[in-house]
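Quick one: structure tokens for this chain, please?
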Amino acid sequence: MKPWLRQGIWLVAALIAPVLLSLALLPLRDHVSDVLIALVLLTVSAAAVARGELLLSLVAATSTALSFDYFFTVPHDQFAIRSARGVVTTVALIAAVPALGTWIGRLHGKEAARERELREKAERYAGELAERQRQVEQLAADLTASRRRILAVGDEMRRRIERDLHDGVQQRLVTLSLMLRGVRADVDEVCDGLAGTLEELRDLSRGLHPAILVEAGLGPAVRALARRSPLPVRVQMQADGRLPGSCEATAYYVAAEAFTNAAKHAKASAVDILIERADGTLTVQVRDDGVGGADTARGSGLVGLRDRVEAVGGIMTLDSPARAGSVLTVRLPVTTEDHLSERAGPATSTHPARGRLMAGAHEPVAVLGIGAMGHGMAASALRAGIPTIVWNRKLEATRDLAELGAEVAESAADAARRAGIVVTMVTDADAVMSVARDQGMLAALAPGAIWAQMSTIGVAGIDRVAAMAGAERPDVMLLDAPVSGSKDPAERGQLTIFASGPGEARPRVVPLFDALGQRTIWVGEAGAGTRLKLVNNTWLAFAAEAVAASVALARRLGLETETVVDALGGGTLVSPWQAAKLQRIAKGEFSAQFALSLALKDVHLALQAADDDRFAVLACLADEWQQAVDQGLGEQDLTVVTRVLEQQGGTP
């Protein structure tokens, strides 16, 4: 509203208000003293002009005086200002109204000033309080951020120490142990010492930081932790996908501390852990049936755990009545902004080069069957830093692997119970079925575990195994992954793996297969790997027969083996594998790299799978090799067939 308009409205009000009030008091003029009426008019009009403006005061005073003179001064209803009394009354009222209005205005002004002062103080105090609250919140945020940075620095230092141990000292110790194997007996003590030191380093490095947490996430890490626990642990995982790094690390350490307390202090017989993600919160709840009586105020483990939980904004509660078990509950906020969840840094995003040690960077692997191939595969897994558990019917076959850091299981079931991935490498389908069913391996596998069947057992054999696994353990993923290669490639991690099976298992076995082989070929559903392996071994059988028959023919024709080696060894028709076999034959070396009996088994499997008489040449090769096996040569290398051919033809 414009100032002049507002002023005009006030003037009209000051002019009209006394008139209207006089009209309202008119019925009382014959009953009430004029003085009282004058005081009422005076007070109301004075209050109306309490704003203190001169013009407004004069207008209100004049209107009040004239209204009193007209309505209440005798004679009524006419102006008495013409008389001396009327003049005095009018002048008195005109003077009194501004004076009284000024006094009321001052009185009101003091109250208004006091109110304004109090209001300003309240606003100032409220502002100061809000600023103090903001400062407290900022200090709390800074404190939380600093605690998280401390945790992040500690985790990074642990990872750095872990990498230094893995890639330096531990690798050199493994190399020394491999070099000392098979040397004179007087170095046995050195080997024992190296093995002990290696085990200590491995335990130390695994305790520094659970690298499986970074590589595979919270679920696999907790399941691996549960498998290593001396108590049975039931894991319920209801948190899909990856979580911020701070949440995963804290939840993992909660589980580790709870498992340890249940085993060492609570005297529990079983543990249950529930990990659930809902509404922006990760809940970790661990129950045991132990003696109870735990207290977060006592014991450095629980105190440190509570500090770690609170450092990431979480809450930890413990319900542990005496003789009634314990329930540890931790709730952690899941925030995508958490800087600890970054996984692009060098400590977490890169994969180790082949041959580098990354102990703890993968789920524990159990190798069942430590023959020539199984031994080499277990050694390659250990060399890659994969936690490896071994089992064999004859314990002595595992002894040198134990010196390299392998854990030796008492039974196939024990090994399967402690591993997330189980490899079977035995002679045939019956042996696989026996290990799985009779030895309790299949029943002992944890839900979600992977069974990598890597033996060559033929199409009928893998179909039997798949049917058994599907019927008895549908919650286990079966991979059909036979290998191509012999003892030396197995020891060097240079096998070729024909893998088939569910695609979701592939990311979990890639580190293991990379450690075992130079190449992995994925060929579809379980069973396809075995079929491709039979094709591969048929090719291998004819390649071996070509070497054996050519050398035997050369000798029959009076040629020295060395001449054949010189003539064929560097030619384009001879593969490196065949060239190596020629060299061994020339030296008379027939120790098994690929035993003849096993090669013959593969040929029979191919013939059985084909179920067709059109493969007559392959059948003749099988008959020839069977004669060598019947002569007691089955445990020697398949190139020993050369001797049988020489004997049949009569070497000149």
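Residues 337-361 have pLDDT under 50 and may be disordered.
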